[in-house]
Design goal:
The protein has 274 residues and is α+β, with helices and mostly antiparallel strands. It has a single domain, classed as Beta-Lactamase. The protein is built from ten helices and nine strands. Helix 9 packs across helix 10.
Length: 274
């Protein structure tokens, strides 16, 4: 239906936007940065809740349930958010903002396919703007749409070490809900969740506000350096950080610290992958 979603157009880009929401459009024209400034402003607004959670002294330690709830409010255009943990080969939802992630998890378990399974086993990030027609999941996609009305999914593997696996799942009933800016924001949220879950599950503790706030500052400073030195848009800077994290198998905070120290993204070690 023509008015089911709004369409914003910019030089060389199209973004579908849910009514009542806005999104920064990545504009590659160096002579026109207006859209980039909009994207930066929207990123700042999106992370307001995250910053407040990290600096809230009413709770001495952060737990993953709290952070998933904050991430749900921060992620543009998401409607349902959940976190899956794989233990001894069995994956299950450990926290969610609604029953939808649990029901999607049940579909995954029943059908043996789905974006969360791909993220847990083979890919660091899995995104689909139309699961119903996505050939990667010929049974899961139609079932997710017909039974739950889910159209868009963004799923991230959480880095916790070789013996622990987890995935963060965002879904929306709108098609093509997660554009480049949204998936970059999701990658930052996933980095925080990785840190919190690693401390909880592997170290048996909870993350201090001081360390969480430090991670937030490191990522923010690294993005600022890339914006200034590489003439990137805000969405492209976040994307570059996440891309380097994935390709080098490093955590996002590690990549951010490298950028702060060297003013450039890390590169593969000589001979790596040879």
């Amino acid at each position: 239906m023509q008015n089911a979603y709004l369409v914003q157009r910019s030089a060389g880009s199209v973004n579908r936007v849910m009514p009542g929401h806005t999104v920064g459009v990545i504009n590659d024209d160096p002579d026109d940065r207006a859209e980039d400034f909009r994207g930066i402003a929207e990123l700042a607004e999106a992370f307001t809740d995250m910053v407040e959670a990290l600096t809230d002294r009413h709770t001495l330690r952060l737990d993953v349930g709290t952070l998933v709830a904050v991430g749900h409010r921060t992620m543009p255009r998401t409607q349902h958010t959940g976190l899956l943990l794989m233990e001894e080969g069995f994956a299950h939802t450990v926290t969610a903002t609604s029953e939808v992630p649990q029901r999607l998890d049940a579909l995954r378990a029943r059908l043996g396919e789905g974006p969360a399974l791909d993220a847990l086993k083979t890919n660091d990030m899995v995104v689909s703007g139309d699961v119903d027609g996505d050939p990667r999941w010929p049974r899961y996609g139609p079932a997710a749409f017909e039974e739950l009305g889910v159209r868009s999914i963004a799923c991230y593997r959480l880095h916790m070490g070789p013996k622990h696996r987890a995935a963060l799942l965002f879904t929306s009933d709108w098609p093509y809900a997660f554009d480049e800016l949204a998936t970059s924001v999701g990658a930052i949220i996933a980095a925080y969740c990785s840190l919190v879950l690693f401390v909880e599950q592997v170290l048996g503790d909870r993350l201090s506000h001081e360390r969480a706030a430090e991670v937030h500052r490191e990522i923010g400073v690294a993005v600022g350096i890339l914006l200034a030195d590489k003439a990137l848009s805000s969405g492209q800077a976040y994307h570059r950080l996440h891309q380097a994290s994935r390709s080098l198998s490093k955590s996002l905070p590690e990549v951010a610290r490298h950028v702060i120290e060297h003013r450039t993204l890390p590169r593969p070690e000589p001979g790596a992958g040879a």
